[in-house]
Design brief:
Elements lengths: L7 H9 L5 E2 L8 H9 L4 E9 L2 E12 L3 E14 L2 E14 L4 E9 L5 E8 L3 E8 L6 E6 L10 H8 L7 E8 L4 E24 L4 E17 L7 E4 L4 E6 L2 E6 L1 H18 L7 H4 L2 E2 L10 E7 L13 E4 L2 E5 L15 H5 L15 H11 L5 H15 L1 E2 L8 H7 L1 E2 L1 H14 L4 E10 L2 E11 L3 E3 L13 E6 L2 H5 L9 E7 L4
Parallel strand pairs: 20-21
Antiparallel strand pairs: 1-10, 2-3, 2-15, 3-4, 4-5, 5-6, 6-7, 7-8, 8-9, 10-11, 11-12, 12-13, 13-14, 14-15, 16-23, 17-19, 17-26, 18-19, 22-23, 22-25, 23-24
Helix pairs in contact: 7-10, 8-10, 9-10
């Protein structure tokens, strides 16, 4: 299990993305009066949720709104014990957003904590055109500060249901375009939310302790009129919200947030968590296994080529075609790069930076200019002008130096260098930072990799030599074999889009390099 290097962080990030993403509403921009009117109807209060997996509670969440005469503060919190890789991993996410009474974001603070170092993004909005953002990973780490241009007012996604309901009367069939902005990755993306249906829910307002069962139970049922909001692309908010814009229920990746009274949501989880610690991880709910895609036959190892049929999923918008991958209809062919393609068209140290400067720069959580990263990259390079030689040396160093360990968190290259452990995300993040520091253009790729009879979600680097070449420091492959199916290129924001494939994609192997 330790060698699979599955992208568990992607799964988690998809689930908690709503806690760490900012959005602006395009239909608000021309009508500030509507914003002000909606803000008047925002009432203070708190709602609580049980976080469920396969009907079993694994966490607790809350959403709180505080109001004053001239401000609104929205606080969202989630803690969950995620079974992954044969162990239980606790992850916490907290978002605090300060808004004006016209629902304009003034400040925000997002923090994700796991077994790895916490990642924090805080920012301040200047007018409707600029975000001053600071991102840091690890205790005492210096923040990476950025000045980001925006095209209008921004809102927290947990406030999007609030704004949809209070801004105007929701109507089934109507949709809203939401330009999303993630402060930890600084990457915008559009998501269209539709009002898909409406119905009623019965929820409990209070709770009492049932001594015979040793658990809290809900009492005083109340009937709520609710609307179902759905992200048409599949990678945004989908769930039921009431007439006050508060979430009633939302599900993603096999996890469900369900509104419950505080004691039922928190105390029952606390007691269940204590029992789970004593019993250990439940392999039947392991998130790595439940999201894996079974192959129709055993595939040979170290493949030179692979041909598969992809079905039951919309592939538009994914980076499936290009380079080593060729898509014709629903048939995807992957061919491992030949030795001739590994001969670089440039020399170090400056050739790669001149050729593709965007892929040699520092980014949030890719601390390319850090003295520790730069010094190590120079030591591994050892003065060689050959990008292929240096890229392979970095691949070997990362493979040999990092403990193969499933990790749930948002990886920072510098923090990975300090901890020397992690799954494919940590291996990939450190590799890309070292390659860029050495002057080799590099980027993150993510998709699926075949391991032990199944395709698991996986991430690996691509380096530019004589074209883009896939490498895998998690498995120690240079170049990576053809069992790697790339679906996206880019960081966490792009990897989140893999959620659209989960539970839907079918893979049929029609030919592999062994000639079967």
């Amino acid at each position: 299990m330790s060698r699979r290097g599955v992208a568990a962080v992607v799964i988690l990030a998809c689930w908690i993305a709503g806690m760490a993403v900012l959005v602006r509403r395009e239909f608000f921009q021309p009508n500030t009066k509507r914003l002000a009117e909606a803000a008047v109807r925002v009432s203070p209060g708190a709602v609580f949720y049980a976080v469920l997996q396969s009907g079993q509670q694994i966490g607790f969440a809350s959403s709180t709104i505080d109001t004053t005469r001239d401000s609104i503060t929205a606080t969202d919190y989630l803690v969950a014990d995620i079974p992954a890789g044969g162990a239980v991993h606790r992850v916490q996410a907290r978002t605090v957003v300060g808004l004006s009474r016209a629902l304009r974001v003034r400040t925000f603070d997002v923090e994700v904590e796991s077994e790895a170092a916490p990642v924090r993004a805080s920012g301040r909005v200047v007018g409707d055109s600029l975000v001053l953002l600071a991102v840091s990973a690890g205790p005492g780490a210096s923040p990476d500060t950025q000045r980001l241009r925006i095209g209008g007012p921004i809102l927290l996604p947990t406030l999007v249901p609030l704004a949809v309901v209070l801004g105007e009367q929701p109507k089934v069939g109507k949709s809203y375009l939401l330009p999303l902005f993630d402060p930890t990755t600084m990457a915008p993306r559009d998501s269209r939310i539709a009002v898909q249906a409406e119905t009623t829910f019965v929820v409990n307002d209070s709770s009492v302790f049932d001594s015979s069962a040793g658990r809290w139970k809900g009492v005083q049922p109340d009937t709520l009129h609710a609307f179902r909001l759905t992200a048409e692309s599949g990678d945004g908010f989908t769930g039921w919200v009431d007439e006050q814009g508060r979430v009633v229920r939302t599900s993603k990746l096999g996890f469900t947030l369900e509104r419950r009274p505080y004691e039922v949501a928190f105390e029952n989880w606390r007691m269940a968590a204590a029992k789970a610690d004593a019993a250990g991880a439940d392999s039947s709910r392991d998130i790595l296994e439940t999201t894996a895609i079974a192959a129709n036959r055993t595939i040979a190892s170290a493949l030179g080529s692979l041909r598969v049929v992809l079905s039951n999923a919309e592939l538009k918008g994914f980076d499936v075609d290009g380079g080593r991958q060729s898509l014709h209809g629903d048939t995807l062919t992957i061919t491992r790069e030949p030795a001739s393609q590994l001969a670089a068209m440039y020399t170090l140290p400056l050739g790669g930076r001149r050729l593709l400067p965007a892929y040699t720069r520092a980014e949030p959580l890719l601390e390319v200019t850090s003295p520790q990263i730069a010094t190590l990259a120079a030591r591994i390079r050892a003065g060689s002008p050959d990008p292929r030689v240096v890229a392979e040396r970095i691949n070997r160093w990362v493979y040999d130096s990092l403990e193969k360990k499933v990790s749930l968190g948002v990886p920072s290259a510098l923090q990975v260098l300090r901890t020397r452990s992690g799954d494919c995300n940590e291996h990939t993040q450190l590799y890309v930072a070292l390659a860029r520091a050495a002057g080799i253009p590099a980027r993150v790729a993510a998709g699926l990799a075949y391991v032990n009879g199944k395709f698991y979600y996986h991430a690996w680097p691509e380096v530019f030599l004589n074209g883009w070449v896939a490498v895998d420091p998690t498995f120690g492959q240079f170049p990576a074999d053809a069992s790697h199916l790339r679906f996206v290129v880019g960081g966490l924001t792009r990897q989140v889009e893999l959620i659209r494939l989960m539970g839907a994609l079918h893979i049929t192997v029609v030919h592999d390099g062994a000639g079967r």
